[in-house]
Amino acid sequence: MTSIDWFDTANVADHKFGVKRRQLFIGSLFFITSFFLAQSVVFEAAVPFSVPFWAIIRTKYKEYAKYVLFGGLIGGFFLGFGQVVILALQIAMYECIIRFRYWKLPQSISVALAILLVQMIWQGVMYQGLPPMLVQFYVGCEAALALIMTLFMQVLFVNSYEWFTSHWTYEKLGSGLVVFAAMLTGMQTVVISYFSLPIFLLQLFICFGALVGSVPLATVIGAVLGTLIGVAKLSFTGMLSVATLTGLCAGMGARAGRFGVAIGSILPSVFFLFYDATLPLDSVYFTSITVGSIAFLTIPKKYSDKVRDKLFPQREEILLARQNWLTEHVTYKLEHFQHFVQFMKELVFERFMTTPVEASKEVSPMNTCLSCFRYDRCWGAQNNGMDKLMTDWFHMKGVGKESAINRAEDQIRYKCVKSTKIFEELETELYRERINGQYFHGKKMIALQLRDMSNHLNQLIAEMKEDTVSFVSVEKDIIQKLKEAHIECFQLDVLSNKPGARKIVCALTPARVDWEEDTTLAERMILPILYDIFEEPFEIEKVVACDVPFRHIQVSFSSAISFEVEYDIYSMSKGATLYSGDSHALFQLHPGLFAILLSDGMGQSKEAQHESRKLIHLMRECLNYNMNPETAMHTLHYVMSLKQQDDMYATLDFALVDLQHGDLWSWKAGGMSTYILRGKEVLKVESNAAPVGFLSISAIEAEKRKLKAGDVILMHSDGLFSSIADWDEQEESFLAYAQQVASTTQSIQEKLTTIMQSFQTHYDIEDDCTVLMLEVTHVVPTWAVFRPVQYSMS
């Protein structure tokens, strides 16, 4: 076993030991509570609290029922063996009542009925007939008190997760005081020398309440506990005044800190010692309250802070007011900056939709031609095609092929007697055209960047003007919908509320029946609810079973994508060299957006490879910084044109696949056509934009196509088709092979390999070649009851 395995095993063992230790601790608390409740005698005759406690724990904490049963039977033994038998019979009667299939009574009625039936039968047997009226009165009181105590315990003993997630209400606090008072009445016999456990706990509880809630809480605790203890004993009702005044004085001393609370809680007892000699304020009482005050001083501050947060949570109105103020202040600053950005955008690019002056198809005569004696022959009625030759020269200069440029220059020299001066003017005109294009690109790049900044600010301001606690409001809406569907979700967190990228974590109770899995409820009920709320599909991202602080499962939901993409790449260099001018990248910007980049540098050299790779890298950086694709394309077009190398540029074929809505967005700068194969239909995406770095043409427009499941996308560099054979014929053959193979059941890797092998049997690939093949399919959840099958289309 390696050290890592040993460490993981040790962590698992420590976790299991911690869970068992926590379960043992909670079970011990329930055992002690049940033990003292079984000894709590009201009106010196009725014992009404054991069965209600058993009923509640059996229903909501079934794993701890055995601790309650043993604690109740052992506690009842101290009142006599007969009380043990009565308690066992009452529990058995309660089990019979709740298991009766033909009628279902409320839990409180079932508890009271079980106690009443058993006591009447028991007392009837003991008195051999109808028991005396006083005994009947005590039996009725015991049943009534049991009914009331069951209602109190239902409020107090909520589901285990609510102890850690919900705030304590006044109803829950009152119920806790009633149960605690019942326990104190069962502790009356726990006196060790000069120490009394119930008096010690009463003093400690009052002091702690004064520290947490000052005068109101301490007074309520003292009054409620004093009243219930006095009523239960039918004596010492004067202790009500002592307990109430103790809470009042302790709360008033809370301003002086812990010592003020401790001293203030003792003063009322000293006062009543001299005022009322009938009260049992003896040495045992004063020793117990002194020990209780000392124990109160040792309680860590973190515990009082936790209880204070539960009882008196910070009001949401104050938080909302502060957040609204911050939102308004920041919004004002952002709007002021937004006006500045708008001004700069209009100043820099006031005619945003204008286009640069492009090289016209009909070239005007040069100045040299106007003064030449052969002007009429070249440009007049006897036109010998000089305008076409100059137009071809401009075009070949833009393409950058040396052989074509030399051929065009030779034709001009053959027809022109002043070719040297003509070439000088042509170079000047070309330079002026490029400068104009560069100036236009600079303006447009800055304008697009300002537009992106303006859009980001608009989005930020819109989000801040929305509900300032949008996450809280969304969480409340979801929880309300789950409650209406009777789904027990005790904690829900919206980690991200961005459309298409939402993340929600929901804590649920584990499956309660054997045939149900932990994900059944989430799959069948919660997913449709989330779809109705957000109008977008969701999926279960992760399910984690947790035992801390109690047993539950955490289900993570995330926005689901409707489509997925599988792809393969075919790439080869000219002559099987190490350097290829083609570069590509396929990656996910986020789970719902897939990016495709294909670049072809000029030539097959190391410089061409560096140029195309640099372009791919810069484009990825722009996308990672959330730059608009159009802005990114124009920015790269401008930046790459400023390089020092002459006549170096690269094409860029850029596409985004929206996997949630099934859209294809395509931007092309000198790239080849993109083909979308859909059965027998072929959709082409084309563009006439110039390569990146060439400034004569700057229009880079986005093309959008709607995708369907089963579509095949093909993107390629210009090296796929040979310059010798007919271009259209090669394209038709390639698409025919692709359509034939795309409908088969082969993997995408096998399909692309088959297509390229079939194509190369008829045509040779002379240049660097890259082919990207992507197949779009529907995403089907693993739990779906059916899975669509794609059939080949004949």
From TrEMBL:
User: Coiled-coil annotation: which residues?
Assistant: none
- Transmembrane residues, as ranges? 24-55, 67-93, 105-125, 137-157, 259-277
Q: Which InterPro entries match?
A: Bact_Sigma-Reg (IPR052016), PPM-type-like_dom_sf (IPR036457), PPM-type_phosphatase-like_dom (IPR001932), SpoIIE_N (IPR045768)
Cite the entry's keywords alphabetically: Hydrolase, Membrane, Transmembrane, Transmembrane helix
Q: Which residue numbers delimit the PPM-type phosphatase domain?
A: 564-776
Q: Which organism is it from?
A: Lysinibacillus pakistanensis
Q: What is this protein called?
A: SpoIIE family protein phosphatase
| Keyword Hydrolase in annotation | yes
PANTHER family the record matches: STAGE II SPORULATION PROTEIN E (PTHR43156:SF2), STAGE II SPORULATION PROTEIN E-RELATED (PTHR43156)
